[in-house]
Design a protein that fits this description.
single chain, 171 residues, mainly alpha, Ferritin, binds MU-OXO-diiron
């Protein structure tokens, strides 16, 4: 089976988006760690790892069909944020753009009658629902718990419990 040029381009562009996401979340983790939000740092280290697995999924799908995936250079990530809330909001916006790109790819796969890619993308469609919900839930916490030091500390603790992957590979 051969991928159409349109699908190849869309999948390679998605590799770029996932690579940017893994780097952006790594930069967010660094900012959180240095600012003293250890729970949030653990959360974003894990999130960065997760994005790398998304990128790998697409790289390996392309390779499995004989198309060598293009590994992109990415723009440098912002290294500081006004607040934890601004950072989470930026993460949600990132996810919303990724969702758009995935939906756009699904439409291309439909138009090209590329059933394999269509089925491959199903996992990403479901994943994006979870990704957006995750960040919306965290944002809600600012209204629920407050934006003063105590509120932020509670949110940081919540993020620590939500961090899913090993935060520190050298520990
Ligand atoms: Fe790979 Fe968070 O989207």
């Amino acid at each position: 089976m051969k991928l159409s040029p349109k699908i190849k381009k869309a999948l390679n562009d998605q590799v770029t988006l996932e690579a940017s996401a893994t780097n952006n979340y790594l930069a967010m983790a660094s900012w959180c760690e240095v600012t003293g939000y250890q729970g949030a740092a653990d959360y974003f280290y894990a999130q960065s790892d997760e994005e790398r697995t998304h990128m790998l999924k697409i790289v390996r799908y392309l390779n499995s069909l004989g198309t060598i995936a293009t590994i992109p250079a990415t723009k440098s990530s912002p290294s500081s944020y006004k607040s934890l809330e601004v950072l989470i909001n930026t993460a949600l916006k990132n996810e919303q753009s990724v969702t758009k790109a995935i939906h756009n790819m699904v439409e291309i796969a439909q138009k090209e009658k590329d059933h394999s890619t269509y089925v491959f993308l199903e996992w990403f469609v479901n994943e994006q629902v979870q990704e957006e919900t995750k960040f919306e839930t965290i944002l809600q916490k600012f209204d629920l718990l407050g934006r003063d030091k105590l509120g932020i500390n509670e949110i940081d603790k919540f993020l620590a419990t939500e961090a899913t992957a090993p935060a520190d590979p050298v520990a």
